[in-house]
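S.,

Sequence below, as promised.
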Amino acid sequence: MKEQMALKRVVFQEGDFPSQCTGCRICELVCSFTHYTIFNPSLSRIKVTTDESALIDFPSTCRHCADPTCIRVCPTQAISRNNEGVNQIDTERCVGCGECLSACPYGAISIPLGEKVPISCDLCGGEPQCVKYCPRGVLVYGSDEEDTSPGG
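The prediction came back faster than expected:
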């Protein structure tokens, strides 16, 4: 059996999540500003979704799965995992085919309008700004021991 390291990622504070998330979308704005110096949620690597039927909001972002489907399906090997366990997209190798978008079970990869290559959470180099600025403390940067990959 292959031993897996505890991967650090943006996780959700334990408690009555997702009701703690107010849907303020500050995480989306901070993310887009951090990466593009513009407040534009479509450029965010974290997305807040509203479930109208349950009247709840919940953020989602790359889970940096233990066995990432996005890496396996990329025909040009443009997605890899760095030494810190963060999935990264090589924009020079990526052809924008969208296979990774279809493969991600969490919808955590997107191609912003007008762009050629996808974006995904890069954990801001180990200091996720979405976590830092979440006013309710719903987001935390940490690890858990469970395998979050599909079928894991």
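The chain is about 15% helix and 20% strand.

Coffee later?
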